[in-house]
Predict the 3D structure of the following.
Amino acid sequence: MNHFIYRNQELCCEEVEVAKIAAEVGTPFYLYSHATLARHFQTFDSSFANIPHLSCFAVKSCSNIAILRLFAQLGGGADIVSGGELFRALTAGVPPERIVYSGVGKTREELAYALRANILQFNVESEQELEALQEVAAAAGVKARVSFRVNPDVDPQTHAYISTGLAKNKFGIPIDQGVAVYLRARELANIQVQGVSCHIGSQLTQVSPFIESLRKLKNFIARLQAEGIRISHLDLGGGLGIQYRDEEPPHPEEYAQAIQAELAGLDCTLILEPGRVIVGNAGALITRVHYTKQGPAKKFVIVDAGMNDLARPSLYGAYHAIRPVRDHGQGREVADVVGPICETGDFLSRDQEVPVSLPGELLAVMSAGAYGFSMSSNYNSRPRVAEVLVAGAGYHVIRQRENYEDLVRGEEIPAFLQS
Ligand code: PLP
């Protein structure tokens, strides 16, 4: 359920006509619905209301500080993977005691920054990272609260690029080597072991892989307890999928119930790191048709957004439904919706039915709220697009469109080339 609906044939986001925003802000732009964001967050978070828990929104999925502020106001925290994301979370007002830090390659500078901020937990992914964290924490004269991300070797049955919990993936510490790492951590003066974490992948459409990995984690926690190591926080990561086309992912309540049934007897605060399930269907990319072109093999609809703005179709072959912003009965036809980038892989939709389109018309690329803007780039020297948040009858530009000056900011022509 989301708040993108047609009224009098016009696509609206909540109470605002999308075409009106396009006329005033220009295209392309990312469009988010405040009501949908809030509803998705609250539905997810309240599904765990019966147990001590913290929903740490995965900043990487949609990192605009206005959106992070909204979730913080709703009681959420942040799952970060870089110093930049920590900066965003703090700037947005996420309390540090609600921030967890994942990622395989945290630098010493990033570790020191997060220690200074006094975040809730480092999800450490290797023994070398543990030693680095000990060193940095000792130098700062503080103790780091640590959980280890264990890799349970569970198949999440999703796209290979977003599978993270298989033995062949780079993430986490193999679960069968985990106890030794916890024993080592216990000896370190500036490390306080508090948790176990895992994240097995993204866009999961079944509950079973989550449950399989939770069972492995429970066994693992029992082994730690036998060694006298007490675990107070269990972080299950994110990964719950959404409907892009005809997927039928579990509803957050179903997911939460299945998890809570497995948790019985564990005395832990549950941490969750949802991203896509909160923002995916709360956002769309709005783009304008430049030209259409009938090639010998297929028809192309050439729009002003490209793979630099929305990478998912090119990167994963991901499907996004394309809807007309004005539905005047134009019908649908099979065509490729492509961008202006000089790559054959530059498409938003390929070999799918899309609205029959004329130059100048607007299209909405749906379900683009997660891993949309946050994965965008300046490739082909294209300024990154604006982000707009609709709330009721009003809209707010929450990120200005970049300009050409932004493109060259920080670049320099060295003196020897200046003559
Ligand atoms: N937590 C971690 C460690 C991740 O790597 C990711 C995504 O890659 C997430 C949470 C969020 O996943 P999702 O957006 O599928 O909920």
In short: The domain at 4-32+280-408 is CATH 2.40.37.10 (Lyase, Ornithine Decarboxylase; Chain A, domain 1).
